Amino acid sequence: MAITDVRVARWAKTLAEYCLDIQPGDIVSIASTPLAEPLITAFYRETLKHGGYPVPLISLPSLNEILLNDGSDEQLLWRSPIEAAVSANANKRLRISASANPLALTNISSERMALANRPPQINPNAAKSPRALTWCGTLWPTEGAAQLAGMSLAEFEEFVFEACFLNSDDPAERWKELGRQQQKYVDWLKGKKAVEIHGTGVNLSLSIAGRTFINSDGKRNFPSGEFFTGPVEDSVNGSITFDFPSSRDGKIVRGASLVFEKGKVINASAAEGEDFLLKMLNIDEGARYLGEFAFGNNFGIDRAIINTLYDEKIGGTIHMALGESYPETGGLNHSAIHWDFIKEMRADGEVYIDGELFMKNGRFLF
Questions:
Q1: pTM of the model
Q2: Rounded CA separation 209/330 (Å)
Q3: Fewer CB in a 10 Å sphere around the end CB: N or C, the chain?
Q4: What pLDDT sits at residue 3?
């Protein structure tokens, strides 16, 4: 992609103004790899323009693989003091995923990945950031990501631009429009209690009583286009088989099937990657409970690319995450993982809310 592409400049401007709202004095960390240099430099310039202090954290894509292969258990669990310093000082954070090979960690053992996924020990005496943290994550199109998506790099770049509304003169306004639409759904869902999901490969019920749906309108995930909540932890019952592959830690799980009883996964299988799925389910007690239930609503994303940032937003789908809940939803589940799985609803699927048909074949009826 040419660094002079006007859409890269729009991307950086939208991240700085709409997503992160950079103000004079903000300390802004920028985490990525050298592969995303065009967006990094454009965003760095925007940060300076808005009076912020950019802190680039640029790493080589191969270093994590080396650590997982050659590091001791103690080294896997160790956390860099630079991470602590950033946590204590930066109040705005941007992460730009940019991997040359999204499957580079495929052959790392499940045990090593589970160890690396353990949450860091929290030092109660560690300095806290004096200001609220605002973060955003986005994806730079690389050759590796394009290959995983089954596209040429040029095709994948256009896919990314369209999904992010970067072909519009004012992407932020497009995101605001989507946010207003989603807010209508969120308002309607307020106070609702029971969810039933039926269709090919799914017969599931759960409770959202007392929980809050969050309107995700491109500010934290870029792109976004979803509204989500944390289901009541012990309320999920039934079974579901997910249609799209899910990638985590460089490993792909296809055809994941889960059976829930009183909120807990009591049986799990997968057509591919079952061993890794089971290892992650056993990483801690909370990994077997749902931390999220959500509706995808970005109809500019019409196919899966084996990347959760995009796949969970596919318009007309639903997704669920095992593990950690988002506290703003009222969710109480805790885990070292938050792992999303996406269910196709566009061909044969129905979602009932308190007995009323809310989604049918991927379309909202409200």
A1: 0.91
A2: 10
A3: C
A4: 47
